[in-house]
Amino acid sequence: MLIGRTEERTILLNAVNSDESQFIAVYGRRRVGKTYLIKQTFNETFAFQHTGLAKGNMHEQLAEFQESLKRYGLKKVKRLLSWQDAFHQLEALLESKSEVKKIVFIDEMPWLDTPQSNFISALEHFWNGWANMRHDIILVVCGSATSWIVNKIINDYGGLHNRLTNQIYLRPFTLSECEQYCKIKELPFSRRDIAEAYMIMGGIPYYWSFLKKENSLAQNIDAIFFKEMSPLRMEYNVLYASLFKNATSHVAVVDVLSTKMCGMTRKEILKNTKLSDNSAFCKTIEELEQSGFIRKYNQFGNKERGTIYQLMDNYSLFYNRYIKSNVNNDERFWSNNMQSRLYTTWVGLAFERLCLQHITQMKRSLGISGIISNAFSWHTLATDNHSGVQIDLLIDRGDNVINLCEMKFASDEYVVDKAYEETLRRKCSVFKQVTGTKKMTRLTLVSTYGLRINPYSGCINDVIVLDDLFG
Asked: Helix 248-257 vs helix 235-243: angle between axes, to the nearest 10 degrees?
């Protein structure tokens, strides 16, 4: 049963009604549900379907492709010696089919492109020289190696340039979609529980599939990540290795970014990873961004500092902060730390990132959905003129307003006391002083259950609650 994915399903189904052959690329992070989306949308009614072989060489890939041709009805399949042979045989198979629309689904296509295999040139010839000349072919290609899909298919400047008729970047579930998932699976979690689970697993459907309704959320996290044979304890090692060739540098960048929530500049990443500043490093950063693991932004009011790169993958941060550091192999690590400072520190940091991932819902709550805006983290060090300040998130709006956002993952209505009121006013004052902005600033609280009104709460101009993020 599909949850959400309305726009993506529409793109795929519209291809069936087209008068021309269609070439669609679907890409996105590992475990995000690409294959499931395609199979469910088309009800697995493929004229041909094949999945690339992980770590297979060219001969092994061709042998598996040959078996797929047989499985889908090609009677006489000669031994495949090249990808040109393979696609010629695929043409023969499709010509023998009677379906009005012949859907071809090639999953994990990046794995087929082994060194010196000439896979791309054979694919180009298949599409340009045969499929595109017809009106009945729907070619859907898919892969978790996002950078390969982007560089070899979407942004190709060779024979596949501008040949795609559509592309789908499949994003993780939102909080709302995770809530729908919980209802379907009869998981008795509150919205606070769902938000906490999201801060650990992100919106990755595969990760959510391990939650069991008979366990509390803390028991589920222990069972999924910390027990000796837990299903996702070693996921981190597989995740990056399956997406990138020579993933050592990718893991090194993610590891250092997990230590600084607001992100690092290129120079800081190089210093902390000790990687060389060369084209390989540029490619690593680009691939991590294309795959959605990191995002880049320029710090507000400080263009000289350069681009900042921020880790956005919830699971990667949780792994580096807690799973990797569980050196005593405590199988009840999460349950045992629910009342500790470790937990309270984590939820504070993770809630900031969850809000950033739901900036669209935050803008809707503020009534500014139609206004152009950019989201930043911001900080300044102490000087003789002012104290150091950290602002979790600011929304720089096109209507000359800036929302200075404070995120608080609380168990009840958040209470602003006298000391915190002074802190907030100081933050606002220092921000204006350092940036020199002439825009109106509005202090905005994002809290689980809102704000308790008291003599000190008047400094807060806008309040966003957790329910708003489920919008």
From this structure: 120
